[in-house]
Amino acid sequence: MTDIQPPAIFGLEWVPYPGRGVRFRAEMTAEYIAFREAGHKLDFAAGFDDTYFLRGQPFTELIVIFNAKNADADLLETELKKVTEWDAGAPERIRRTADEAAERILQQHAHFKKDRDAATQLIQTWGEFIRPSVREQLEKRLAKPMLYTADSFEIQRSIRLVEAEAKAKAVEWREKAEARVDWPDDVVEQAVVHLTALDDDHASLRNRKGWGAGHTRRGHWCRAMLSQDRTLAIHVARGIVGEYARSQLAAILKRAA
């Protein structure tokens, strides 16, 4: 029955959700989570589904789905009576315990979402400067539908490792850098951005695109450092961008001439 609309319960704010059937989704509210924590669940046959638990832990994305195509009107009415009974007659002790659990889950959810966002940002910022073993662990955790405390610890550990190595390389590469090109700073910056953007294969394929294998980590470090210490990034980049002058940077140099 596709004329059934998602019910106004628990303060859920429904929005259309692409997929099979006539679907809507809503971010879980504290009221909904408290209802679930008290041991209740709305029936799939009434159109409901959620991503509440997996092995006793909440998913990273806490959402409720309502599929009008799956919803039986009579069953839906029965399920909504559960909500009314919960609202009207749940014992105070049970409600208080459920509310406290809901608050903890929402706090945990926010914490893990912050970690997931931090891991994503780390990869986007530092790219192939991140050592393969560290990047592999981060991507493995990002691929999970949910995060555990151990995942959170490893993400924070990876962030510290990458940031510490970036600082160490800043000292090393500053001292070893050779100014092999005298291009304007803006041209050097364009070269770094261009080569990094082309480096989709991380120099694993000999397709003459992006940084060469010997420059991959340093090139991605320069790209990240442009927003943190542009002078240093350009200083280091001057020692490596010249090798691409006649190939991948020819158009940039021609426009700058």
Structure, briefly:
The chain has helices spanning 30-37, 73-89, 92-126, 132-142, 149-176, 185-198, 216-225, 230-237, 250-256; strands spanning 15-16, 23-27, 48-50, 53-54, 57-58, 63-67. It is α+β, with helices and mostly antiparallel strands and 257 residues long.
Task: For the structure shown, list the relevant keywords.
alpha+beta, 257 residues, single chain
Structure in words:
- With 257 residues, the chain is α+β, with helices and mostly antiparallel strands.
- It contains nine helices and six strands, in the order ββαββββαααααααα.
- Strands 1-2-6-3 form a four-stranded antiparallel beta sheet, with no helix packed on it.
- The mean pLDDT is 86.
In this structure, how is the largest beta sheet organized? 4 strands, antiparallel
- The count of DSSP E runs of length 2 or more, i.e. the number of strands, is 6
Percent strand equals: 5-15%
H-E string? EEHEEEEHHHHHHHH
Basic shape:
elongated
Mean pLDDT: 86
- Give the uncertain stretches in residue-range form: none
Ends: how far apart? Answer: 67 Å
How many H/I helices? 9
Structure class: alpha+beta
Spatial strand arrangement across the major sheet: 1-2-6-3
**Could you tell me the radius of gyration in angstroms?**
26 Å
Q: Which percent range fits the helix content?
A: 40-55%
